[in-house]
Write a structure and sequence with these properties.
This protein has 9 helices and 8 strands.
């Protein structure tokens, strides 16, 4: 009988231990879930059924590629969002001025091309505002959208951007034109990955050697699929509807 009692007593204790462990796991999981749920995130896309996309371009180097890209957009009557590097804006002021004159959205690509997540919040804000001031000086635009250098971010970067009245914008389709993978590869990636509310990443820096040739085909393919082109700000307005 004592052995039997001991056996059942052991089972009871085991149940208590298991219940305690389960409670601990559930509590820990809940904390992790809440932290993940509240983790600050940039904008990758907008959820919508409308066949609209934002075609975006980053520019940090050179002045040979931007103008042909702008001409292609004008020929196709498309308004895009350009994320401009602070030093580049001052180096080639005629290009950002043309971007604004053609009705495109002027946005920021930060100042130094470094990972902002490695900096303190004050340093991040300094980087953002230095680029902001350059952009405003050249274009007279108070930019409020930023694509961080290298797409790098963490909670602190997003908090700093918000405190500077900026929204952090990423992308949901990367053309990979910055890798110069071949015109067909660029076109295929965008044409196959595009979806309603998409933010498409392309580049107009001189390091991107195939963007000029690929862009007209990308535009034609998206138009053939029934897509309309809007700026990022116009796309974001769909969230409020």
């Amino acid at each position: 009988m004592p052995r039997i009692f001991g056996f059942y007593e052991l089972k009871a204790r085991t149940k208590i231990v298991l219940i305690a462990l389960l409670a601990t796991i559930l509590l820990t999981s809940s904390v992790v879930y809440v932290q993940a749920y509240h983790k600050l995130k940039p904008v990758y896309e907008v959820k919508t059924d409308k066949k609209v996309v934002a075609l975006t371009f980053d520019i940090s180097w050179g002045n040979n590629t931007p103008m042909p890209v702008i001409d292609i957009l004008k020929k196709n009557d498309i308004k895009s969002t350009f994320f401009l590097s602070g030093p580049w804006v001052k180096q080639y002021p005629e290009v950002p001025k043309r971007i604004k004159e053609d009705g495109h959205e002027v946005a920021s690509h930060g100042y130094r091309h470094i990972n902002l997540s490695n900096l303190s919040k004050n340093e991040i804000k300094e980087e953002i505002m230095k680029a902001h001031n350059n952009i405003k000086e050249v274009t007279e635009v108070d930019a409020n959208l930023i694509r961080t250098p290298n797409g790098d971010f963490n909670d602190q970067v997003i908090e700093a951007a918000h405190e500077c009245n900026y929204e952090v914008i990423q992308w949901s389709t990367d053309s990979l034109d910055w890798m110069n993978p071949g015109v067909n590869s660029i076109v295929d990636r965008v044409s196959k990955k595009v979806h309603p509310g998409d933010v498409i990443l392309m580049h107009a820096s001189d390091t991107c050697k195939q963007t000029i040739e690929a862009l007209p085909i990308v535009i034609k393919n998206l138009k053939d699929q029934g897509y309309e082109f809007v700026t990022v700000s116009e796309l974001l307005k769909l969230n409020a509807q």
